[in-house]
Design a protein that fits this description.
There is one protein chain. The protein is an alpha/beta fold and 458 residues long. The chain folds into 2 domains: 295 residues, Aminopeptidase; 135 residues, Aminopeptidase i, Domain 2. Strands 1-2-3-14-4-15-21-17-19 form a 9-stranded mixed sheet, with helices on both faces. A hairpin with a 5-residue loop joins strand 12 and strand 13. The longest helix has 16 residues. The radius of gyration is 23 Å and the shape is globular.
C-alpha cells in the first residue's frame, strides 16, 4: 500500500525574471494598498496602463478588447473579450480587497485626563488583543459638507507620527489574565491614542481642541465632518520578506490581497483569450459581502449585461442569465495554513501546507458546511486537469477540524447564478492578525494557476 508523495512547490519553482519582478510589485501592493480604496486605486492604475478602458468609453466588445469597471472606488472588475461570444459563458477569478481592521466611529474624538483618543469599531473577525501596543497608521477619506474629498494617510512615512492603542501593564494585569482572550480587551477599549499637547489657553478639553486645530489647519476638517468620513486604522509599516532564506512574506491584509494580486498578474499576461476573461475585486467580504460594493450586490451581473449589449446591440435578460449560468469561476480566497504550533485544531490529512502550492477547497463554511458553496466534482476534476497540464503544484484542504468553527468566502454568491465555482487560493499563517504570513513559492504557483485557468481553451 503506497502513501501519497508530498510535492513541494519549491521543487518546480524556477522563477522567471518576470515573476521575480512580480514579488517586488506584490510587496509594494501590500505596503501601499492597505485599504480597499487604495488597493483598487493601485489595481485600476496598473490596468489603465495596460490598456483596460473604462466601460463607459467602450463602443464594442470584440476579442482582445480590455475593459474596466470601478465600483464606488472600493471594488472593481477587469475583463478581456474572448473569441467565443460572451453569451456562451466566461472565465472568472474573483477575490476581495477588504481586510480586517479598525474603523473610526462617527463621533470619535474625546479627551480623558490630558490624552486625546479616537473611538473605533472593529471591522471583520479580529483578535482584539492583537491590536494593542502596536504601531498603527490612519488611512481614508473625509467628505466635507460641501462634498469636497479630503484624503488622509498618516503613519507610513518615516517622518510621520504613528498611533497606538494602550494595553495594561503585566504588573497590574491579574484580573485581565484571568479573563478569556476574547474578553481581555473589550471592543470599547480599542481607543486610538492621538495626542497629548494642549492648546495654550484656558478652558476645558484643551488637548481635544489642539487636535481639532491640527485637523482644521492640515486637512480643513471640522469635528462634524467625521460623520461623513471613512477612516481605517491599520498596522503601520511595509510588507517584508521573512526568514533567513526570504521564503515568506509578512504583511498586513494578505487575506485576501495575495489572491487579488495573483488575479491581476494572471489577467495582465492575457491578450486574446478563447473565452471572455474576467477578474473581480470585491469589498465587504469580511463582514458578509453586504452593501453596494460587496459580492451580494449585482455589479457583476450588470457588467456582463453591459458587455452583452455591446456585443449584440441590445439588452437581453435571458442571454445575461445564460451567460452567467455557463460561466466557470475560481473564488480566489486564502486557506488556513497548517501551523505545527496549533496542530490540535487542524485535520492534518486535509490541511493547507505552506510551500505545497495553490490550494483548492471543494467547500468552506462552518461545521456542517453552513454558508458554503460545495463545488461539483465534475468542475473540481476540470480544475485539477488544468493545473496538472500546466505543471502547477497544487493541494487540497479545508478550514480546520469540522467542529472547531469555519468560515465562508464569496463563492456562494457567485454560485447563485448557476455558474461552476471552486474556492482556490493559498495557505496563510496568522490569518486575520495585523501581520499575516504567506509563502513565496505558493504565491508564484497561484499566479501561474490563475493564469492557466483563465487562458484555458477547452
Amino acid at each position: 500500500m503506497s502513501s501519497k508523495k508530498v510535492k513541494l512547490a519549491w521543487d518546480d519553482l524556477q522563477m522567471s525574471e518576470r515573476e521575480q519582478q512580480a514579488l517586488a510589485e506584490y510587496l509594494t501592493f501590500l505596503s501601499e494598498g492597505k485599504t480597499e480604496r487604495k488597493a483598487w486605486q493601485l489595481l485600476e492604475s496598473w490596468a489603465e496602463n495596460r490598456g483596460f478602458l473604462p466601460l463607459d468609453d467602450l463602443r464594442s466588445f470584440e476579442q482582445g478588447q480590455k475593459v474596466r469597471l470601478s465600483v464606488r472606488a472600493k471594488a472593481g472588475i477587469l475583463a478581456i473579450a474572448g473569441r467565443r461570444p460572451l453569451k456562451d459563458g466566461f472565465r472568472l477569478v474573483a477575490a476581495h480587497i477588504d481586510a480586517p481592521r479598525l474603523d473610526i466611529k462617527q463621533n470619535p474624538l474625546y479627551e480623558e485626563e490630558g490624552m486625546a483618543f479616537f473611538k473605533t469599531h472593529y471591522y471583520g473577525g479580529i483578535k482584539k488583543y492583537q491590536w494593542t501596543a502596536l504601531p498603527l497608521a490612519l488611512h481614508g477619506v473625509v467628505f466635507l459638507k460641501e462634498g469636497h474629498k479630503v484624503e488622509i494617510s498618516v503613519g507610513e512615512n518615516e517622518e510621520d507620527p504613528i498611533f497606538t492603542i494602550n494595553d495594561l501593564l503585566p504588573h497590574l494585569a491579574k484580573e485581565q489574565y484571568d479573563k478569556k482572550l476574547r474578553e481581555a480587551i473589550p471592543g470599547e477599549g480599542l481607543n486610538l491614542l492621538i495626542g497629548h499637547n494642549p492648546v495654550n489657553e484656558d478652558g476645558e478639553e484643551r488637548v481635544k481642541h489642539a487636535i481639532l486645530n491640527i485637523l482644521k489647519t492640515k486637512y480643513s476638517i471640522d469635528e462634524d465632518d467625521f460623520v461623513s468620513a471613512e477612516l481605517e486604522v491599520v498596522p503601520a509599516g511595509k510588507a517584508r520578506y521573512a526568514g533567513f532564506d526570504r521564503s515568506f512574506i509578512v504583511g498586513y491584509g494578505q487575506d485576501d490581497r495575495v489572491c487579488s494580486f495573483a488575479a491581476w498578474r494572471a489577467i495582465e499576461k492575457i491578450e486574446k483569450p478563447e473565452w471572455t476573461t474576467i477578474v473581480l475585486f470585491a469589498d465587504k467580504e469580511e463582514i458578509g459581502s453586504d452593501s453596494n460594493t460587496g459580492m451580494k450586490a449585482r455589479y457583476l451581473e450588470n457588467f456582463v449585461a453591459e458587455l452583452l449589449a455591446l456585443q449584440n446591440g441590445t439588452y437581453d435578460g435571458l442571454m445575461v442569465r445564460r451567460s452567467m449560468a455557463r460561466a466557470k469561476a475560481l473564488s480566489a480566497d486564502v486557506a488556513a495554513g497548517y501551523d505545527p504550533n496549533f496542530a490540535e485544531v487542524m485535520d492534518k490529512r486535509n490541511s493547507a501546507f505552506m510551500g505545497r502550492g495553490i490550494v483548492i477547497s471543494k467547500y468552506t463554511g462552518s461545521r456542517g458546511k453552513a454558508e458554503s458553496n460545495d463545488a461539483n466534482p465534475e468542475f473540481v476534476a476540470e480544475v485539477r486537469r488544468i493545473f496538472d497540464e500546466a505543471k502547477i503544484t497544487w493541494q487540497t484542504a479545508e478550514l480546520g477540524k469540522v467542529d472547531q468553527g469555519g468560515g465562508g468566502t464569496i463563492a456562494q454568491y457567485m454560485a447563485v447564478y448557476g455558474m461552476e465555482v471552486l474556492d482556490c487560493g493559498v495557505g496563510i499563517l496568522s490569518m486575520h492578525a495585523p501581520w499575516e504570513t504567506s509563502s513565496v513559492a505558493d504565491l508564484i504557483m497561484m499566479m501561474r494557476g490563475y493564469h492557466a485557468f483563465l487562458a484555458y481553451n477547452a
